[in-house]
UniProtKB/TrEMBL annotation:
It comes from Actinomadura soli. Keywords: Cell membrane, Membrane, Transmembrane, Transmembrane helix, Transport. GO terms for biological process: transmembrane transport. This is ABC transporter permease. The keyword Transmembrane helix applies. It is found in: Cell membrane. Belongs to the binding-protein-dependent transport system permease family. It is a multi-pass membrane protein. Residues 69-258 form the ABC transmembrane type-1 domain.
Amino acid sequence: MPFHGDLLSRVSLVVLLGLLAVAVLGPWLPLGDPAAVNVGPRLAAPSGEWWTGTDSLGRSVLPRLVEGIRTTFLLAGVAVMGTVALGVALGMLAAYYRGPIAELIIRGADVLFAFPSLLLAILLVAITGPGAPGAVISIVLICSPLMVRVVRAASLSVVGRDFVVAARVGGAGPVRILLVHVLPNVAGTAVVQATYALSVGMLIESGLSFLGLGLQPPNASLGSLVHEGAVYLPIAPWLVLIPGALLALAIMAVNLVGDGLRDALDVRGVEVRR
């Protein structure tokens, strides 16, 4: 389906694709080794030689920014894939099976949804340990409850339709009904919700890394770069401002693209697919 977003959504899509291109092509760009040390003066300000300055070890910040963009998108993207798989499956099951199964799924989602996001992330990382796996698990468990509720609401409008009832009477099993008849009709809703989950995932990963609980050195994400630069904020503010601005730009672009997708994939007034 074509992207029918407004001008702001289209510009945001271009920005997002540009950031993704930098993230994917980063290892092959001639920017230098992000882990190299003593390649330049310490805490050098942005200039023609050092476009984004250097850090406290004399490393060029530019290749580390590229690595940070790639890592932030990668971790949040992996977490969102897990969120979509878990949330869509549980949401459709909660809509198809009424009674105890639906209650168990919805109440479990409500319990997770009641926790403040960052507090829940810190609690989960305290259990799993700092690092990328803990950050991914935290994002999945934080974003899944809303995905479950949204997909369930969309699925409830489908499972009662005549073609689903006919399929059930005709002997189709629950798996076939959910995959063939329900899933195609809630896919658009899930995609739109996934974009918002991506922005939340980037924010949670960056928050954990800023607190030292996410990605561990020498690896870099945008949040860990802000964490490293915060120590030198009075004398080298670019170490915080540049990765912070990139993070804000990426999250804003994802949200605006999600708004455009919501308009493009809106199924209200469209005949339900059989």
